[in-house]
Amino acid sequence: MMVIGITGGIGTGKTTASEYLEDKGFARIDADQIGRELTANGQPILEAIRDQFGCVSEGGTEGNGLVLDRKAMADLVFNNKGIKEEYDQLIHGEIIEEIDRAIEELSETDAKGILLDAPLLFEANINDRCDVVILITADMDERIGRVSLRDDADEEDIQERINNQMSDDEKARSSDFIVDNSGEPEDMYRQLDDIIDYLGIEVD
Length: 204
Prior knowledge:
Blueprint: E1 3-7, H1 14-23, E2 27-30, H2 31-38, H3 45-53, E3 56-58, E4 66-68, H4 70-78, H5 81-106, E5 114-117, E6 132-137, H6 140-151, H7 155-163, H8 168-173, E7 177-180, H9 185-198
Parallel strand pairs: 1-5, 1-6, 2-5, 6-7
Antiparallel strand pairs: 3-4
Helix pairs in contact: 1-9, 2-5, 3-5
């Protein structure tokens, strides 16, 4: 079964693209969701996060009783590229194990294909699990506007977060298809339909 990587920076509409293809019959692996589950209240990895970065408190009722302060962790990670790299190294191994397990399980289903939805597809070196990679892009002003509206975040903070991610130019060099989502969602959907048709995958 074909594995299609879907990636893109914050505010590009990567999740919207993945959800559209999921509705077309593709099975979706959400790397961000796996990360959230691994760092849920009481999970073992929280001990390592606390020891290395802080941003973890006690008082939970599950597992080891630890709770991740997600906002504090996000502020720390997105405002310091070095810390972001350290954090990614800590959790990527476990995320990749879960991704590999999910790919194996979903390969036995009747899905049209498998979507690997991962903003850090290249940074985590999991693009080698994919047969093809689709990069979702958008104009910078559009991205900042979307994230500002979604997260009620300051424009300067959003720009800093974007600057700490791999650039679209770098991602584009390793992607098979590039979808521009600067306009209306319907424009992106048409581009995705063209790619799926090109790949020879029949969808509903």
